[in-house]
Amino acid sequence: MQAYGFLRWARRIIALAVFLGLTYFFISFSAKAAEVWNALLGLQFVPAILGIATGGLVTVLIVLLLTLLSGRIYCSLLCPLGIYQDIVYRIGWFLRNKKKRRTHYTKPHNTIRYSILIIVVICVAFSFVFLLVWLDPYGLFGKIATNIGRPLAYFVSGSKYDAWNLAAFLVSGVILVALTVTAFFKGRLYCNTICPVGALLGLISRYSMFRVMIDPESCTHCQLCSMNCKAFCIDAGKPVIDNSRCVVCFNCISKCAKGSVTYRFAWKPEKKALSAAEEKQPSAGNNRRAFLLAVMGTGAGIVLLNRFTEKKKLDIPKAMPPGAGTPERLKDTCIACHACIAACPAHIIKPAMGAFGWQGFLLPSVSYENGFCGYDCQKCQEVCPSGALQMMPLEEKKRVKMGVVKLMLENCIVEKFGTDCGACDEHCPVKAVKMSSREGSDKLFPKTTPSLCIGCGGCEFICPARPKAIVVLPLSEQRQADAPVIDATINIEVDGFGF
Amino acid sequence: MERRHFLKTAVLGAVAGTLGLKGMKLFASEKSAPGAIPAKEDIPDLVAIMGGEPEQLYARAIKEMGGMSRYIKPGMKVVVKPNIGWDKSPEYGACTNPLLVAAIIKDCLAAGASQVKVFDHTCDQWRGCYENSGIQEAVKQAGGEMVNAHEERYFRETELPQALRMKTAKIHEALLECDAWINVPVLKNHGGARMTICMKNYMGIVWDRRYMHSNDLQQCIADAATFEKRPVLNIVDGYRIMTQNGPKGRSLEDVQTPKALFMSQDIVAVDTAATQFFNQFSAMTLEDASHILLAEKHQLGTTKLDALNIKRIRL
Asked: Of the four listed, A181, B16, B268, B307, which is most buried by Cβ atoms within 10 Å?
């Protein structure tokens, strides 16, 4: 029993650390301070699947093997949204009187659960990630933490939050309220009904090596375990635990007075403990096949709908963060967790509204009202857990062309008023805009070399003219800009001071 | 020769007097290096020094200027204002040398300053600038305090009665509240203002730089320099100078390393001297960097270096 108490506390402590760490990552002001928690992003399952070709494979294998070994520990320890629901449920538990704390077994909503899973799998297989953007627990957590937690943190500290977006705030708010209410009353209902990760890992955890199980011999059907189950998955009458829904929280084990509930090796063939996996499913062969077909048909339908409504070549009104490639690639790999938005020290990455089509709602877009892309910065690429913002050597990132400069000289201060300015030249890291002399004038005028431009937006941001004399036009296909021709090094030696 | 020297010094002594140096201790400070402390009349108007490491250059120059205790009195709240405009490491010469900043802070504290604050309203993202310039770390090590300047709330509306174009400006609170400040720019060329030295460094104490850029930049820079609280010292970091693609710079090819430093109370004179020094590397005139001439019109100092007592030192 003591060992289980220890396991339970270990779970709580680890889960709390993960939750607080991830929350801190998303709301912290300093990207550097948040770096410590970066690794937790790399352990998230859905981003790892989307980025399976770009480094996600290890995480996917770890999570799958972990689940096969020990059940849905991932849902209890590493999923920030799952932990959040546990916290809410626990708070509810403290608020309720003793009688109302009791829960009871409910039937699984397997139809909904596996329909969602199948549809999502089909959609993702055919590069339509939109649904996952709205179902992946980590992505939802990121959206909530970034669009509600972050502005709140800035507000409390008295700072201005530049990436504020009302739509993202409201959408995240609705999700947060809905999740909080369900978690308060129904515990892990979301995880066991809607969450595709929960459904997938649930399929595996039915057969995991270690499972929480009830020994039917010693069980007195007292219901204590079932009354304390936040997943509502213990049917103490039978007695049996639905391991596809169990998130291995160890709460039931420590409640059982008889020691009948244990977490144990379950691959021994001779010990025939009943579990939901082995229970005879109410089978209806043809019905089931028809149902599967219908669900798969729905999935295919959604994929086709997307294919037909998606514009082939998108002219995007906003740039994408470096490493996104094309809007299509971004939509294929990004679950809008907003880690890049949280990490961008310049606050230029913001949730897109319609910039990338309806499928790209809330995906990261770049705009330069409050800053510009740091030349030596690749924080967004560093934190992106799905590889949607492809990590690359810094030297390569410095050449990523997010957009291209457009100069409208007629608006320029020097042209209009004949006074010095040069703010654009000042901010350009590659000298794609440079002040140059003009015959008949002692002033210097901006002159652009678009092939060098990387679209960082420094010039657009700082240009003091109204309307702007220099802007960055977003590119819907990021490529490498020309490398600047560096002047030869000349070391000049001087003897005197010159005066 | 001796006599002329003496006369010049006397004239400048009078100028210094009007600048409010009158009551200051002439001989002092157990903190100053052993050796002769120059008498008041021997203190040059401008020290130009070349050929040493940043701390050496500074130590010698401040000694020539009579030691920091001439400028910083015990208990004073001090601001040191380097150029930290860009997210660049020190070797690119885009920001003031952190070693120099640290040396000045230590010296201020040794002279009895109660606190030394350091800030700049940066161009690149501020955290990157503070960190990668090496200045944040240097300030911390030296015992100073790095303060924020990336939000409007740190700046307060201030009248500039002498100004022609920029009659009011939002100026950083640390500067408004300090007893003395030291201006420590790095010597660079500038695509807009042509040169960025002491006066251009004032842009980092002002919140709205777009206003300055769009309302006759050169005049606005001179206007900013009319801010009533003048720096007690202007120290130009010429250890590494940026001779092209300034003020941000693109690569190390933009940087020369003449290992120089200029120090003066006269902001116009020191900017003039630094510009003429710069001219040896890349052609530059005062007419180009016309804010220096405009500041002379504001009577902030003189461009006539011949009339000054200049101490030229080669280490």
From this structure: B268
CATH code of the domain covering residue B276: 3.40.50.11440
Q: Considering only CA atoms, which of A333, A323, A325, A394 is closest in space to residue A56?
A: A333
Q: Do B193 and A417 touch (CB under 8 A)?
A: no
Candidates B217, B243, B276, B288: best to mutate against A (most CBs of A within 10 A) is: B217
Residue A16: is its pLDDT beyond 90?
yes
B48 CB near a chain A CB, below 8 Å?
A: yes
Q: Do B192 and A464 touch (CB under 8 A)?
A: no
Mean pLDDT of chain A: 90
Q: Is it the case that residue B22 has pLDDT exceeding 70?
A: no
Band of pLDDT at residue B37, cut at 50, 70 and 90: low
Query: Best residue in B46, B126, B127 to probe A by mutation, most A CBs within 10 Å?
Result: B127
* Domain membership flag for residue B25: no
Query: Of B48, B217, B244, which is closest to A419 when you measure between CB atoms?
Result: B217
How far is residue B226's CA from residue B162's CA, in Å, rounded to a whole number? 6
Q: Strand A210-214 and strand A234-235: pairing?
A: unpaired
B191 with A429: Cβ contact below 8 A: no
Query: Given this model, what pLDDT does residue B142 score?
Result: 97
Does residue A369 belong to the interface with chain B, where contact is any CB pair within 8 Å?
A: no
Confidence category of residue B33, pLDDT binned at 50, 70, 90: very low
Q: Dihedral of CA A116/A122/A123/A129: which sign?
A: positive
Mutation site for A-interface testing, chosen from B214, B278, B303 by largest number of A Cβ within 10 Å: B214
Tell whether B173 is covered by a domain.
Answer: yes
Cα A446 from Cα A407, distance rounded (Å): 8
Strand A444-448, strand B233-242: pairing:
unpaired
Interface residue A442 vs chain B (CB under 8 A): yes
Q: How many domains does chain B have?
A: 1
CB burial readout A402-438, b (16+ within 10 A) else e: bbbbbbeeebbbbbeeebbbbbbbbbbbbbbbbbeee
Q: Which domain holds residue B161?
A: 2-20+35-314
Q: Does B283 touch chain A (CB under 8 A)?
A: no
CB contact under 8 A, A30 and B243: no
Closest approach of B25 to chain A, Cα-based (Å):
31
State yes or no: pLDDT of B305 exceeds 50. Answer: yes
Mark out the alpha helices in B133-257 (DSSP H runs).
135-142, 173-177, 209-214, 217-224
Task: Look at residue B243 and tell me if it is in a domain.
Answer: yes
Q: What span, in angstroms and rounded, lies between the C-alpha atoms of B239 and B96? A: 9
Instruction: Report CA Rg, chain A.
Output: 28
Establish how many alpha carbons lie within 13 A of residue A482's alpha carbon, considering only the half-sphere containing its beta carbon.
11
Closest CA to A331 of A478, A494, A497, A133: A133
Rounded to an integer, the average pLDDT of A409-421 is 95
**Residues A272-331: tens digit of each pLDDT:** 555 544 555 555 566 778 888 888 888 888 888 887 777 666 678 999 999 999 999 999
Note whether B199 and B291 are within 8 A (CB): yes
Question: Nearest 5°: phi and psi at B4?
Answer: -60, -45
ipTM topping 0.90: no
Structural domain contains residue B26: no
Residues of B in contact with A459 (CB under 8 A): none
**Where, residue-wise, is CATH 3.30.70.20 in chain A?**
327-480
Structure pTM?
0.88
| B191 contacts A374? CB cut-off 8 A | no
- A494 and B251 in contact by Cβ < 8 A? no
Cβ of B151 within 8 Å of Cβ of A30? The answer is: no
Q: 3-state class of B193 per DSSP? A: coil
- Which fold, A327-480? Alpha-Beta Plaits (3.30.70)
Given CB atoms, is A486 within the 8 Å cutoff of chain B? yes
